[in-house]
Design goal:
Helix content is 38%, strand content 24%. With 267 residues, it is an alpha/beta fold. It has 2 domains: 195 residues, Purple Acid Phosphatase, chain A, domain 2 (4-Layer Sandwich); 32 residues. The strands form 2 sheets. The chain has a 7-stranded mixed beta sheet with strand order 4-5-3-2-1-11-12. Strand 6 and strand 7 form a beta hairpin. Helix 1 runs parallel beside helix 3. The two termini are 29 Å apart.
């Protein structure tokens, strides 16, 4: 049994429960192995777009298990759930708080004397905020890319190779995508600066990142569709991007070689 690791704060986003591409099982396992004082769910936790598309039932037991885990841990963990564009159905009830769970549009996370503006980030995406119809067409194209990703990784699995996000690599190599990510980061950082915050925490673009823009710390928690990533904060206020695949490799190393080594990837 793996030993649990405790953090001051954990940030997850873009789990897309209700989508067949959601790595809900892995996200649930991660939260069972990593506890925290505050859990920030930074939008698109539930994929309302996918749930409404077609007639076939898409909500699976693994999706329910993640929600059940949240209800279990909220007794000891403060949970902040931010509305994303795929779970925009929450607009009708915001803001809402029940027990130790708060559902909001944005949030100020204060830690170690620093202020972080927390938001999903879709409102700073011109396509999503101004042309929602175009965004939904793009969502269909993204689904096709994920189909290719699925079959590619099935072949890798048969060869004994680890999971590799083909769709993420495609986005990294496309110039327009790289430019879009850069513009998104600069825009959202400027908003944090105007709000007199020391940093910004977001999701939305499925691109985990930790970077400084002058004095502003930009943190993106990535996703649990392609990247399988999270943000963690320790009690000294240090932030890291953690890749689930890397954590799993550490478990295998410890089983085989008994090496008590922790691997984290900071981007």
């Amino acid at each position: 049994m793996n030993q649990k690791k405790h953090h001051k704060t954990i940030v997850l986003s873009d789990i897309h429960l209700g989508s067949k591409w959601s790595k809900a099982k892995e996200a649930t396992k991660y939260l069972k192995e990593n506890t925290c004082d505050t859990l920030i769910l930074c939008g698109d936790i539930i994929d309302g777009w996918q749930l409404m598309r077609g007639k076939k039932a898409k909500w699976k037991k693994r999706h329910s298990n993640f929600i059940k885990l949240l209800l279990d841990i909220q007794h000891d963990t403060k949970i902040i759930y931010l509305r994303g564009n795929h779970d925009d159905f929450l607009d009708r009830i915001l803001p809402l708080q029940f027990q130790n769970i708060k559902i909001v549009k944005d949030y100020i996370h204060t830690s170690n004397g620093k202020r972080f503006y927390v938001i999903h980030g879709d409102v700073f995406d011109m396509v999503t905020s101004r042309y929602s119809w175009l965004s939904k067409i793009g969502d269909v194209g993204y689904t096709l890319l994920m189909w290719v990703n699925k079959y590619y990784n099935n072949r890798r699995l048969k060869k004994g190779l680890p999971y590799y996000s083909l769709s993420r690599e495609v986005k990294k190599r496309v110039k327009a995508s790289v430019s879009y990510i850069s513009d998104y980061e600069k825009h959202i950082v400027e908003i944090a600066r105007k709000k007199k915050c020391d940093g910004v925490i977001c999701g939305h673009i499925h691109h985990p990142e930790k970077a400084y823009y002058d004095e502003i710390l930009y943190l993106n928690s990535g996703d649990w569709v392609e990247s399988l990533s999270a943000l963690t904060e320790d009690y000294e206020g240090n932030w890291e991007v953690v890749m689930y695949a890397q954590e799993e490799k550490v478990v295998e190393v410890m089983k085989e070689d008994k090496v008590p080594e922790k691997v984290k990837l900071a981007i």
